[in-house]
Amino acid sequence: MNSREFREFGKAMVDYIADYIDNVRDRDVLPSVTPGYLEKHIPKETPVDGENWKDVLHDVEKLIMPGVTHWHSPHFHAYYPTAQSYPAIVGEMLSAGIGCIGFSWMASPACTELEVITMNWLGKLLGLPEEFLNCSEGPGGGVIQGSASESTLVGLLAAKEKMVRSTQKNNPSLSEGDIKGKLVAYTSDQANSSVEKSGILASVPMIHLPSDTKGRLSGDVLREAIRRDKAAGLIPCYVVATLGTTGTCAFDNLEELGAVCNEEGVWLHVDAAYAGAAFVCPEYRYLMKGVELCDSFTFNAHKWMLVNFDCSALWVKDARYLVEAFNVDRIYLQHQHEGKAPDYRHWQIPLGRRFRALKLWFVLRIYGTEGIRRHIRNHISLAKHFQELVLNDSRFEVVTSNLGLVCFRLQGDDSLTKELLEKVTANKKLYLIPCYTQQKFVIRFVVCSRITTIEDINCSWAEIISHANTIVPYTTDNSIMHEPRKNDYINLTTYQEPDDSMNEKSK
Amino acid sequence: MNSREFREFGKAMVDYIADYIDNVRDRDVLPSVTPGYLEKHIPKETPVDGENWKDVLHDVEKLIMPGVTHWHSPHFHAYYPTAQSYPAIVGEMLSAGIGCIGFSWMASPACTELEVITMNWLGKLLGLPEEFLNCSEGPGGGVIQGSASESTLVGLLAAKEKMVRSTQKNNPSLSEGDIKGKLVAYTSDQANSSVEKSGILASVPMIHLPSDTKGRLSGDVLREAIRRDKAAGLIPCYVVATLGTTGTCAFDNLEELGAVCNEEGVWLHVDAAYAGAAFVCPEYRYLMKGVELCDSFTFNAHKWMLVNFDCSALWVKDARYLVEAFNVDRIYLQHQHEGKAPDYRHWQIPLGRRFRALKLWFVLRIYGTEGIRRHIRNHISLAKHFQELVLNDSRFEVVTSNLGLVCFRLQGDDSLTKELLEKVTANKKLYLIPCYTQQKFVIRFVVCSRITTIEDINCSWAEIISHANTIVPYTTDNSIMHEPRKNDYINLTTYQEPDDSMNEKSK
């Protein structure tokens, strides 16, 4: 394909994507295919001769789209959002066009430098303490990782290496193997599965501590676990606190956990994969109170902050621990500017890395601080609107609600809510997933799509109601407006005045 | 940004990328900036209000491009190629436009299914044994990873888990910790730095075995190392063989290593990151003789096979070992079709994954088998042309040459070649990097850019000569045509008849 054909193909694809999003409401959010559908329509081997791009684009609509779950449909309410925005898509295009691999400064200086700068912008936008930023005097800094899974694993590997070194220093008779065999890490039973996986990958048992009835891990529980394990001869090295759990968007008590970790010399990592984006709005920063006590902090700009996957932002207070854990140098990777700029290959698992800072830069500039805040606040207000709809139907209860997530269920036995979810899913107009909280089976409703309007939320609710009516018959009583039943749900999204002490740090 | 503006911005970016590649020869391949150049031109914080995309695009040319190392310039000869092609760029666009996260079948069926199909296509294209393919009856299969680093680590983690289980089965008294403390892995001293890193990340010592004078690891060396380490009570679990080393593109003796690994029950992983693409041409498949003996095989379609980064293809003979090593299930990830299609999240480190099969599909269809073979053969013939140019100047020697790489130097002391490389690099017209081989400092010359022509190679050579002339004065003697001095270099690229037994397997 030459550049003339690329201009045609590329522009046709721009229109295809714009049309796709403009008309995504016309498609069922869930596909109607069964496993193995695609192989029936596609040859078993690569064609011998190249095909025309028009045939390929035609097959995208004919063969691929019927098997796509539409994550950007306003009726996709599953998991958490994954970001898609026009500036980010164009940023991805440019990244592919330049096609550099920025594993060292020299391999493409702009790739490293724009990442340093945009990670500073982003850290300031979230109100992170200065010491986490590349622009601080100290050894802290930010880096773009591929996923929160990788950020959590990177933190664990750095913490592991740090603990092995410090333990050996104090006990020279212990071998590295002896120490590694005693290391343990902690997180709550509400942590994302990727946290457990990081423990498996790093061969460090990841102990799940019990959260409270609201899904939060407290300092006392951690302190007691550390006391118990140290008495048994184990060596605690890493704690993952979650800000915004996957199930119910609960927030661990970071201040308490931080105090324990700092006392015990244990690395505290914060996984704010989804909720971190809310901290761009000063009124939600109270939810990360205690962040200055952590050693590393990650959130996925590719979830709720408009930057296409992959863009998991990770900041560490002391990047030297990463470099010490990961540095493997060879002559073919060295260059004369070594040491004057971060060589991000030592901050991550892979050697290669693409120019992901471009899409972050595009989003930050084209939306601006206020545009991003509007997006976050809009989603939260849409979730509140949905919550009101649920609360106004007495057949339902809201079990928890926070930021863009509302967990609700039909009053009564779990089987009713399970039946509701099955019916909704079978009709393919909405995508919702369940979780268990407070011993109840609940449906998670997340405002995900960037283009969601209040009409979309009403439409999603109407779809839910239409199935609920077949399970719990509608009576006029159900529709009576009533005051929200305050004790029915945890409402952490109430507006709070910005915490001035935290805002100061962001300047 | 609304869809109308996206249509404008996206199309302007398509033209920008096409213009960039059309005119990339006008730019110095190496940038003239010094560390910290960019922060002088960029504000310290995100703008409050959103900016116009035209201003952003303007700054790309004004601020970013001066700091870019142009990996797709025909005068970029460093490292190995990284892929960039028009079909792949458009595939990336569509992947960003759909923006799904395909961690399970249900999360987007087409995302999983197209990956299954394209990995079958790709495996057949390379002539891999059937048992590695998803379409075989057995437990083998292919998956797209982000990088060869990840593929190597995934293999190591699976091998580690497998060895722990089998060792525990035979020695129930041994604890998991005891076994893990005894595991060792092997690779050659010519392996990529990412192999060593995988050992560090997985806490398994990665022992570097000596390669022969031609950079190849033999079976005897491995057998002796395993014997020695088992006698010392260690447990060998993983061997990484390299097909096409980073330094000189040497090939380990896979048949010998495979025989040893199979005897010893040790997992054999093949890293063919660069060279694997050559196997699309039957005449180079003799270089992977013995591949049927390995447990996992990876090559980077994003290096030499026209698919933009990231697209590291990994095949395993038994995917159950990956799933056993990585599976962490939660209710929010379950769906009714579980088990009927691979849930690729259990085949990799991160939970999230984007729709990377699209760009692979676009490249395979739009180039076709013959188009891809033409690309590979063209690069190899351009490297041969460069080799002839070097051989025809008696001031130089070719130390090794293989596929698209020629390692050459000035005759005499290393300091001459070092001076040459410094001068070439300082002039920024070419990007070349060094390595040591056979106790000599050599310059690696790799044909990297997809658009390279014979005139580009001549132009690169003229630039090298212009600096060489200032170090070793030109005399008429130098230009005398002579027969290639056969003993000066290892020539593995000599055409061999296709190995029929291997080709059969690909059918």
UniProtKB/TrEMBL annotation, chains A, B:
GO terms under biological process: amino acid metabolic process; carboxylic acid metabolic process; catecholamine metabolic process
Cofactor(s) the record lists: pyridoxal 5'-phosphate
Classification via SUPFAM superfamilies: PLP-dependent transferases
CDD domains the UniProt entry points to: DOPA_deC_like
The keyword Glycosyltransferase belongs to this UniProt entry's keyword annotation: no
Keywords: Lyase, Pyridoxal phosphate
Family classification: Belongs to the group II decarboxylase family.
The protein's name: Aromatic-L-amino-acid decarboxylase
Organism: Photinus pyralis
Lineage: Eukaryota, Metazoa, Ecdysozoa, Arthropoda, Hexapoda
